[in-house]
Amino acid sequence: MGNSFIEALAAGLPIIGTPVGGITDIIEDPSAGSGRATGLFAERDDPHDLAEKIIHLLRDHNLAASIAREGLRMVRERFLWDKISEQYGVLFSQHRVLTILIATPLLPPQLGGPALYVKHLGDEFKKMGHRVRTVSFGHFLRYPSGLRHLLYFFALLPRALRSDLIFALDYTSVGFPTAVAAWFLRKPLIIRVEGDFLWEKFVERTRLDVTLPMFYGKPQPLSFKERLILYVSGWVMRRATRLGFSSEWRRQMIIDAYRVPVKKTVIIRNAFPFVGNPTRRQRGNVILWAGRMLYLKNLHRLIRAFASIDISSYELYLVGEGPEKKNIERLVREQHAERRIKLFPAMSHQELMEKLALSTAVILPSLSDVGPNVVAEAIGALVPVIMTKESGYAEVFHDAVILIDPLDEADLREKLKKFIEKPAERTIPKIGFSRSWTAAAKDWLSLFNTL
Description:
This protein is α/β, with parallel strands linked by helices and 451 residues long. It has helices at 3-10, 47-59, 61-78, 81-95, 113-127, 147-161, 175-185, 197-206, 212-217, 224-239, 248-258, 299-307, 325-334, 349-357, 373-380, 409-421, 437-450; strands at 16-17, 40-41, 99-104, 131-136, 165-168, 189-192, 242-245, 265-267, 286-290, 315-319, 341-344, 361-364, 385-388, 402-404. α7 (175-185) links the parallel β5 and β6 (189-192). The chain is globular, with a radius of gyration of 28 Å.
């Protein structure tokens, strides 16, 4: 093989070797007429020929530089670890076609992270030659709790029996029947841990300003149903073969709260593909929020902060539906901000992307938000983002977004005001933050293949 030759070329040095063994795969001698020189050959057992080649390189600086340049190019093309691992990945996938069962709470055209992931990851898995089956929990929501979980379990069983593994996009409603099915059939279970149903239920019930780290950092007054969810969630995550997280922030939180072994966990970043700005129209003076209108989205602080900024040329658009909408409409009226704060019903993904592309910024002041899709899409469209610091995306996009303290209304107001008043200081996302669905799918498949 000759590792020392590869290391020399990687360091920008010309090389001389004998034409034996694996060295012939590394050195292309200019005398061979290939037009590309990556080294010189010296005859075996001939010290005089070796001396001549050494002297030749020492005197011909152009040749030495050319060999070093071409050799470095060859190393980058053939011997970098990411290139080698990609080639092995192709080799493995050619020899093993996986049948993947995706257990999801939602399916398109429904909006939400799971629906987005089941569509894009499923399509990518299929492109790579794998078989994909899906079972959506949403089909059983018309039944009462308990019965819907039982029906979902029986829907999973025949599909799981004919699958190599189960990939669950939720660890609560989907997670429990999926974990039981995986245990019963002895199938590997991989769970993508993103949202937090228990924390959301607690905040919506109590209307307390509790962030995710605060919720798991100290005991909370949970109801009986919430304690049951806590117990079942822990059982599911400890039963899973692997847990995938999009951030270290979220992984450490779950490890501490549910006593999950670290070796069961892995970080696989979410996809945030670069799409550019699809419209040529000029962006308006609009700050955009989009999502499900819940108390934990912290819209009451956002509305008060925006209404207190005396800049009439800017508008705040709130897009979505949810149980908090009437309270939000009432608060807008109380702040006498109907002309500057406009509410829109939920819209299709395409309509939302068109509105996003015309906005000055996207804002997300949630008490916590693990991996919000609207932020990923804004980053991909090069739209500035103002978002909560209580998010896994804070560790990914910290240099590309404006981070706010969700519990500090003054901080929200000051950063929003500064953003509006000083356009030159705005943080614009960079293309370098993009990550394709193909890259995300490859990372998941790499994990699947290890199991």
